[in-house]
Amino acid sequence: MNEFSITRADCLARDAQDPLAPLRERFDLPQDVIYLDGNSLGARPRAALERAQQVVAREWGRDLITSWNTAGWFDMPKLLGERLGPLIGAQPGEVAVTDTTSLNLFKALAAAVRLQAEGPNAARRVIVTERSNFPTDIYMAEGLSEWLQQGYRVRLVDSVEELPAAIDADCAVVMLTHVNYRTGYQHDMAALTRHAHQHGALIVWDLAHSAGAVPVDLNAAEADFAVGCTYKYLNGGPGSPAFIWVPRRHQASFSHPLTGWWSHARPFAMAHGFAPTDGIGRALCGTQPVVSLALVECGLEVFEETSMEAIRAKSLALTDLFIELVEGTCANHPLGLVTPREHVRRGSQVSFTHPHGYAVMAALIARGVIGDYREPEIMRFGFTPLYTRFVDVWDAVAILNDILDREDYDVAAERGAVT
């Protein structure tokens, strides 16, 4: 075992000086767990249990259907969008919290393709994305292309360096995830958006690993559309509704095939024929999942007590510390860092490869350090500055080093349905 370059006492001292430390108390975290998987599922805000009981017992149980009006259920997607908007550089009236990330991505892609088909770039038929993009994003783009039956196809790019050349005269839409789910690599949103526009393409950003983790300014970057989830860094709860961003300049022309009654101009007129509402309401579809929506608010409330700049500063400090400690104490083991060292290119996670990555992660989880695993051989560790402490980083690395030194992991471990 190599010596730690930083002591545990050093980390405790950093926690004592951390301006975000009090926010940890806003979350209900098990005392015997070091949770480094907020990039997959955020921890539960303490307020969520009381909010769920309020919705179920009073608003649903006592007030029943009247709560669509009296408890504000009907307006919840837009109201939550207003609270989420500042985290991603949105203006008022540009964000709705609704549906899933996949469904919202389908809407955004469909709208972008339609805009191009009705303009001077109508002949373009290529959607550009990365082969390393989250698979569901690629599936949705391929599904839309096949469903349209108009010659659309998805062009998969194998490296960041190849992206600019792939955005050519055939490209209608670029679809990228801002922070890569495997590696934590962060794209230059402004530069790639500018490049896409210079070559006549529209761009859709997936912020699933960005929102609440890194500063994002969609309007400053002049992006076209964006989607993301609320159950990771935003701490909205398992399967909580996603969000979609449509800038004001695109709202009047925003259209998609999922024209449900919630996006109708007069949903309770029960009229024949679809007439879209104005504004971000066009991005809605069907009846909203009220209980899940209500819990999203609890996560967003915590962000209103700090700033994305403060969150980013701590995120970089935590991930720097983790990389330094792992490389300093586990140097004799076959670990490979796949997350960028450069701050400007790093999200809020650190990923290491190991030939027995799944088995090592399973051993970590058994000892109370929860990260997760992604093929091939990648152990992911997510750092959520709202509740992750510097001492958590030190303790996690100590346990990882002990597991590796003693080879205390089972390479034949049976895998669960979720890794």
Helix content: 25-40%
Helix-strand string: HEHHHEHEHEHEHEHEEHHHEEHEEEH
Main sheet record: 7 strands, mixed
Class derived from helix and strand content: alpha/beta
Shape: globular
Task: Give me the count of strands.
Answer: 13
Adjacency order of strands in the biggest sheet: 2-8-7-6-5-3-4
Structure description:
By secondary structure, the chain is of the alpha/beta class. Helix content is 36%, strand content 12%. The chain has helices at residues 8-16, 47-60, 67-70, 76-84, 101-117, 135-148, 163-166, 189-198, 218-221, 248-251, 290-303, 308-329, 357-366, 390-406, and strands spanning 34-35, 95-97, 126-130, 153-157, 171-177, 202-206, 225-228, 243-245, 336-337, 349-353, 369-370, 372-374, 378-382. The radius of gyration is 22 Å and the shape is globular.
Features:
alpha/beta, 419 residues
Task: Describe the protein's topology.
Layout: H1 8-16, E1 34-35, H2 47-60, H3 67-70, H4 76-84, E2 95-97, H5 101-117, E3 126-130, H6 135-148, E4 153-157, H7 163-166, E5 171-177, H8 189-198, E6 202-206, H9 218-221, E7 225-228, E8 243-245, H10 248-251, H11 290-303, H12 308-329, E9 336-337, E10 349-353, H13 357-366, E11 369-370, E12 372-374, E13 378-382, H14 390-406
Parallel strand pairs: 1-11, 3-4, 3-5, 5-6, 6-7
Antiparallel strand pairs: 2-8, 7-8, 9-10, 10-13, 12-13
Helix pairs in contact: 1-14, 2-11, 4-11, 5-6, 12-14
